[in-house]
Design goal:
heterodimer; A: alpha/beta; six-stranded mixed beta sheet; 7 helices; 6 strands; about 35% helix; B: about 425 residues; mainly alpha; Cyclin A, domain 1; 3 domains; about 0% strand; globular; Rab_GTPases_membrane_traffic (chain A)
């Protein structure tokens, strides 16, 4: 089958980029996947995505990153794309306080529509505009600690911390997956059931309890 | 015409008066001035029903600026602009009372409506004349023009702490629209420059003046012509958000307006032209997604009837809802086509819609052997055609909807508009009986 051709990776992780309009989600994506930046990138209509394959902890990981429209109006459409996502980058703009204040709402959005175990990283973007800053880094730090999120300030324009942000999220996801796979193997061997090799999609594991056979 | 201008200027004044955004800006950027301005705004509170003549808006240079923008342009698109303006004339109270007749009304009716409109003063409109566009009426409908007046009454409360408590999926307010409009305006590109040499050559002073008139900020990095363009986008989109509060502003609308601005140098003309354009396009931006669903469904039907093999493949990938053409539908191919291609496609599309309105029926078209009969949905046939052009690739190489989305999103710059229209017309000829 055709889809085997593109299968040269150990894991495929789906990540969503969310946050208010104009915080720089699309540029974070283009910086990470193509090393490009456009000062005048247009607003995202609906969803777009790009992929990049990289090595994390000795494994080949294909990151499929979904970039979503920031405007509330599009949320009904974009939230459909949270399904199956194992990671989320929640982006705000350090020069626009309101985009930081809205982070709470985006978290609620994730709670409502994404998998409960999704790995979330909060990102304060546009750190190159330090002279216009209206959200102190400590505020971001404190909030993320309170909510149990990882946190980084990035600059898509100057390519600062973008790579690190994705690496961190992907690595965290990979660790969870490895643990789960291990646990699954152990339980499989103790239960004497045969299991599939690798779990491609962590998020679906808990929701995807293909039910009845496992209940006994 | 002149009185239409009055309506537009009135909308602009309302934008400035209810502009929480600009008040905040002023307070931030100039504290002493900010207090004065806030005071003047609050003193205007309750004056919403003042007649246009009696209007006095302090600190408001917009009227002056807009008058400067008036030009005797003889550009080729004026005609379509006038046609559209006729359309907007249907926003008269009679038509509002009688919702669904827009496409069948005669030209006589339109003329008389036009004169009705010119006597309208929007804020005076009685709320009882409001007819909500019904959810089924998706083709073309009239914005709740008069309700804008009603809304304005509450503006000052809405913009303060009296705002209703909102659920997690909120209804956006004017302030939010203003913020996003500005965001989109300053990042609009300048593909249009070759279409309007006068706008391309605007002086820095004039550009800054127009930016100030709409309280635009964050434009320092832009060249004068782009500042000017961004300011016009803000002025018209804000006015539209007041004019059609059910839709307000949704990202993508600036994509639809930008080409009109390039060919219409007068803000008033551009506004009414845009309002006419939006009568159909507004359904793309509705919160309930009815308009989008209908159109995606139609693209799906076209593909199903034309190419069942491809359709089966899409079904297999659970992509038969054609969600992958979402962006093409919402902004009418604007993102996939160059500026010039967009103008060509839209003009062909509008010509078809105008022919439909003029009552050129399909049977008479066939009798005359004129090829494809006019359709209101040429765009959707063109979108389906663009997908069908990739059928081989989709069937042979793509095994998930993700890949098709990526394919569609990367069509930018790849399309041959004339081939696309030929294909679309072929589809119309063979399928319109079964689809529409």
């Amino acid at each position: 089958m055709a889809h085997r051709v593109d299968n040269e990776y150990d894991y495929l992780f789906k990540i969503v980029l969310i946050g208010d309009s104009g915080v720089g989600k699309s540029n974070i994506l283009s910086r990470f996947t193509r090393n490009e930046f456009f000062l005048e990138s247009k607003s995202t209509i609906g969803v777009e995505f790009a992929t990049r394959t990289l090595q994390i902890d000795g494994k080949t990981i294909k990151a499929q990153i979904w970039d979503t429209a920031g405007q509330e109006r599009y949320r009904a459409i974009t939230s459909a794309y949270y399904r199956g996502a194992v990671g989320a980058l929640l982006v705000y703009d350090i020069t626009k306080r309101q985009t930081f204040d809205n982070v709470q709402r985006w978290l609620r959005e994730l709670r409502d529509h994404a998998d409960a175990n999704i790995v979330v990283m909060m990102i304060g973007n546009k750190s190159d505009l330090n002279h216009l800053r209206s959200v102190p880094e400590e505020d971001g730090q404190a909030f993320s600690e309170k909510e149990g999120l990882s946190f980084l300030e990035t600059s898509a324009l100057e390519a600062i911390n973008v790579e690190k942000a994705f690496q961190t999220v992907l690595s965290e996801i990979h660790q969870i997956v490895s643990k789960k796979a291990l646990a699954a193997q152990e339980s499989a061997s103790t239960n004497g059931r045969s299991m599939q090799g690798t779990t491609i999609n962590v998020a679906e594991a808990p929701t995807n309890t293909k039910g009845s056979c496992c209940s006994s | 015409m002149i009185l239409c201008r009055k309506d537009y200027l009135l909308l602009r004044k309302h934008c400035l008066r209810k502009s929480v955004y600009s008040n905040e800006d002023r307070k931030q950027s100039n504290k002493t001035d900010g207090a004065n301005h806030a005071e003047s705004v609050s003193s205007e509170k309750g004056e919403d029903t003042v007649s246009p003549v009696g209007f006095e808006v302090p600190d408001n240079p917009s009227v002056e600026v807009e008058e400067h923008l008036i030009s005797e342009d003889g550009n080729p698109c004026v005609r379509s602009g006038e046609e559209m303006q006729d359309d907007t004339s249907k926003t008269s109270p009679e038509m509002l009372m009688d919702g669904n007749q827009s496409s069948s009304s005669s030209s006589n009716k339109e003329e008389s409506d036009n004169s009705v409109l010119t006597h309208e003063e929007m804020p005076h409109k009685d709320a009882t004349s409001v007819q909500q566009p019904s959810t089924e009426d998706e083709q073309e409908s009239i914005p709740r023009y008069s309700s804008a007046g009603g809304n304005m009454e509450n503006d000052s409360e809405l913009s303060k702490d009296a705002r209703p408590v909102k659920s997690s999926r909120t209804v956006e307010d004017f302030e939010t629209w203003q913020r996003i409009i500005r965001l989109d305006a300053v990042r609009a590109n300048d593909e249009w420059v070759s279409y309007s040499t006068s706008q391309a050559a605007v002086s820095r002073e004039k550009a800054i003046e127009s930016a100030k008139a709409v309280c635009l900020k964050d434009y320092e990095h832009l060249e004068p012509h782009r500042i000017h363009h961004a300011s016009r986008l803000v002025a018209i989109l804000e006015a539209y958000a007041i004019y059609d509060p059910e839709i307000g502003y949704c990202q993508g609308m600036s994509d639809l307006l930008a080409p009109l601005l390039a060919v219409l140098e007068d803000d008033n003309e551009a506004f009414w032209c845009f309002a006419g354009f939006m009568r159909k396009a507004r359904h793309n931006f509705r919160l309930d997604e009815v308009g989008i669903r209908r159109q995606l469904n139609m693209v799906s039907k076209i593909i199903k009837h034309k190419d069942f093999h491809l359709y089966r493949h899409l079904e297999m990938l659970q992509a038969e809802d054609c969600f992958f053409v979402y962006r093409m539908v919402v902004v009418m191919f604007r993102r996939e086509l160059t500026f010039e291609q967009t103008l060509s496609l839209w003009e062909v599309m509008w010509a078809d819609q105008a022919a439909n309105r003029a009552g050129i029926t399909k049977s008479s078209f066939e009798k005359l052997r004129l090829g494809a009969p006019p359709t209101d949905d040429l765009l959707l046939y063109a979108i389906a055609a663009s997908v069908l052009q990739k059928r081989k690739l989709i069937i042979e190489s793509y095994s998930s909807m993700d890949e098709i989305i990526r394919e569609c999103n990367s069509m930018s710059g790849q399309l041959n508009i004339w081939k696309l229209l030929d294909d679309a017309h072929d589809l119309v000829v063979t399928l319109h009986d079964r689809i529409e």
